[in-house]
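Q: What would this complex look like in 3D?
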Amino acid sequence: MNKTILQLNDITVRKAKNLLLDRISLSVSPNEFVGIIGPNGAGKTTLLNVIAGFERFEGALSLFGQRETWMRSRETRLRVAYVPQLFQIDPAFPIFALEAVMTGAIGRLGLFRSPGRREREKAMRLMEMMRVAHLSHRPLGQLSGGERQKVSLARAILQEPDILLMDEPTANLDVAVQKEVLNLINEIHKREPLTLLFVTHDFNMLPAAMRRAVLMNHGKIVFDGDIATALSGEMLSRLFQYPLETFERNGRRFVSYG
Amino acid sequence: MVEHFINALSYPPIQRAAMACVLCGASCSLLSVFIVLMKMPLIGVSMSHAAFAGAVLGMLLNFNPFLTGFILCLLVAAVLGPFSDRTEMAPENMLGILFSFLMGLAFLGMGILTRTKANALNLMWGSLLSLSSSDIVLLTIITSVLFLFIFFFFKEIRSVLFNRKLAASSGVPERLIYYALLFLTGGVVSSNLATVGGLLIFALLVQPGATALQLTYNLKHFFLISVASGIGACVLGLILSYIFDLPSGASVVLMATTLFAAAYIFSPKRRWAKLKKRNISHENDTR
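A: Here is my prediction, written as C-alpha cells for the whole assembly.
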C-alpha cells in the first residue's frame, strides 16, 4: 500500500474578506515530485505556506501521518524544508555563503550545540553538488541571484528534510540560470530520498523529473494528474482564460503564449 | 586638562558616570546589531518613547519612574511581537503609530505634571552625574543578560537575523529569539533612560551597528566592532564633555556620528563594492 506523507482535506484560508484557498484537498506520497502550477493569485504560495506551517488555516492537514495545525513542533519543522523565491539581501549583510548554508543545520543541532566538522563537511559537499563550493567564503549579498538560489537549495537539503517545498525558485533569474537551477533540482530528486513540491506559474520552466501537476486557479485545484495531460492547450487555456497552444520538442511539451 | 579629568575620576559620581558610559555603550551597541540588521530602527524609537512615557506616568502616580518605564517597555514588547506577526499591517507602519501614540502619552503626562518638570526633562536628555549605585547595578544586570543571550544563542541569532521565515522553517525557535530580543530591548532602553535619556538613546541604538556594517562581513566581528564603537562614543563623548564643558548626552551622540562618518568614509566594503562594479563594467566594455 502506498503510504501518504502529506494529506490535506478541505483546507480553507481567508484573509479579511478574501478567500485565498477554497476547500483544497490533496494527497502526496513519499518521493513524489509534484508541481503546483497556476496563474498569479491562484493560491499556490498560500498552499505552500499552509504546508510549511506559516499560515493559519481551516480544515485538516496531516504530515507523516500526524494531524497538524499551523503551529508545529521542532521535529515536524525539521522534516519540511522550504526554498523561497529569490529574496533581496543587503550586499553588506554579514554572512558568508557557507554560513548561510549551515543555517540549515541549526534547527537539527538544537540549543547549546554548535555546528562542528560533520556539518561543515556536509555543507561543503552540498555546495559542491550545487556547483557553488568555490563561493563558500564570499559574502552572500555579493553573489548573483542564481548563485544565491543554489546556496538556498544547499541550505534546505542540509536540514535533512523528508519534504522539500520550493516557491518559484527560478523566478527573477536569467533563462540560462533558470535551466541550470532546474537541472540541479532534477539532480536533487535523483540523489536524495525527498518528496518535492514545486510552485511555479511558468509552464516552460518545469523540472524534467516532475511527473504530477496540480493546477490551481482562484484558490481551487482545477486539475490533479500527470504532467502531460496538464500541459494540453485546452486545459491551460481554460486555466488562464487566455488562448494557449502547446507543442512538443525533444520529447518535452512547451507552451506557446501566442 | 586630561590630568584634571583623571583626577576627577577619584570622585564617586564621576566614577559612576564613567561606569554607566561603558555599560550604556555596550548594551545599546549590542542591541544596535539587531536593530540595524533586521532593519527595524523604529523598534528602538518606540521602546525609548515607551520607557519615557512610562517614567513620566510613574512621576504622575508617585511610583518609581524607572520601574514604570520598564513595565511599559515590557508591555509594548509583549504587544509588538504577536501583533506584528499576526496583523496585515506592515511592521514599520505599526511601529510608527505606536511611536507617535507613546510620544503623545509622554507629552500629555508632562503637560499635566503639576510639580517641577526638571526631573521629567532629565529623562529626555539623561543625567550622567546624578546616577545612583542602584542605577549602575541595574545596568550591569541588563548588560550581562544581553551578553549571555547573545553568547549562548549566537547560532540561532545568526539564523534569525539572516531570515526569520527560513529560520522558522528549519526548526529554529525564531519566535522565542525575536520576543526575547524585544523584551531585552525594553530592558536596555528603560535602564539607560537615566544615562543618555529617552531621546538621545536612539542614536546609540542605531549608530554602532551602522558603523560595524561599513567594516565587516563577519558577524562575530560585527558585534565586537559595534560594542567598541558604542563604548568608544560614550567614553570619548564623556571626556570631551568634561574637558570642553559640553552637555554630555549631546557630545556622546555627536561622537557616535563622527565614528560612523569615519567608518563610512574609510569603509573597505564600499571600496570593494566600487572595485567590483568597475571590474564588471570594464569586462562589459572589453567584450
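A: To summarize the key features: Chain B has a mean pLDDT of 86. The two ends of chain B are 63 Å apart (CA to CA).
Q: Very helpful, thank you.
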